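user: can you give me the structure for this one chain? tokens are fine.
assistant: on it. calling the predictor now.
[tool input]
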Amino acid sequence: MRPYLLKGHERPLTQVKYNREGDLLVSCAKNLQPCLWSSEDGRRIGTYEGHNGAIWTCDITWDSDRLITGSADQTVRIWDLPTGKELCQFRHREPCRAVKLSAGERFLAVTSDAFMESQPAVHIYNFAENIEDQSTEPALTWNVPKGRCTRVFWTDCNRKLITSHDYGKLRRWDVETGALLQEETVHEDAIQDMQMSPDESHVITASLDKTAKLIDIESFQVLKTYKTGRFVQSAAMSPLFDHVVMGGGQDASQVTTTAAQAGGFEARFFHKIFQEEFGRVRGHFGPINTIAFHPSGRSFTTGGEDGYVRVHHMDLDYYTTKFF
């Protein structure tokens, strides 16, 4: 694997995300400015300037014309993706954690953290086709029981939401009423990341309990468990093979006292079905905070506590070797 090493952030990465075609890559970090890259050659295309706090998550529209970001500065912002111009801003009283567009892009789900006397909450916005018609008031808001919402996804033809939380919980919500429909504890510690399979039948979760788990979207039943012995900050599923890749490592506070090899800072590949590890990719000298597969499955990207984004293109052996 021959990685592109992308340096556009001075602080830890929080999320990397490809657009639908896979030719563009957005990286979010704690240094206020998301960056846009070419995933083909690693060229930096631009930045999105305006936030005053860490950017936790982002989403990209189907046609790659707009970018949505959620930030610790208590705002969600819509950007013109090609030019970097800010188009709209939603203001909250709490830090905004996760954002996700619905199928068809008629709605936008936003989660906010507990802050002062406010509880964690989920907010549903109407997402206008024309930015001039965009309302900054949520169509529906409901409070969440104890546990910060780290990720949110739309399911069941936009009728329901699933959210991942601290305390290892998954929850399902009715979008029309905000009613809690289902709650399961699937991890023993906080869920740091959750990513959906291409067919939307299951999700993979990454947790501080040192495991990643494959979970059925309908029943919340744990299908597979991948054990690493280190904190798992992020995990992704290959759209090409039955492979999952996950990243993490020891606690960031211990990084300066430990060698990179001992810290477990590699991207680790597991067989999706057999749960066996078959490869590791080194490079970061701090924990991997976020990881994403290219839509083609022919490359993957990692973002680390060290502030670097690494784009890895697979060698020929990856396609020809039978691992199991």
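assistant: here you go. The helical segments are 260-263, 316-320. The chain has one domain: 3-320.
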